[in-house]
Amino acid sequence: MNEKKQTSTFSKITKAVVWVMLIIMIGTTVLSALSAFN
Questions:
Q1: Where are any strands of DSSP class E within 1-38?
Q2: What pLDDT sits at residue 6?
Q3: What whole-number distance in Å separates Cα of residue 28 and Cα of residue 21?
Q4: 3-class secondary-structure state, position 1
């Protein structure tokens, strides 16, 4: 049971990190586009 819980927590952390990376990438692309227009 402990191993399953650890793997589930690890997968949750991995998903959270992936989402944060995607949000940062989208944010940087939007900022660069806005700066290019300005």
A1: none
A2: 67
A3: 11
A4: coil
**13 burial via Cβ count (<10 Å: 0-12, 13-18, 19+):** exposed
Radius of gyration over every alpha carbon of the chain, rounded to an integer in angstroms: 17
Dihedral sign computed on CA atoms, order 30, 33, 35, 38:
negative
Residue 7 pLDDT level (bands cut at 50, 70, 90): confident
Amino acid at the residue 24 = I
User: Cα angle vertex 20, ends 4, 28, to 5°?
Assistant: 160
Per-residue pLDDT of 8-20, as tens digits, reads 888 999 999 999 9
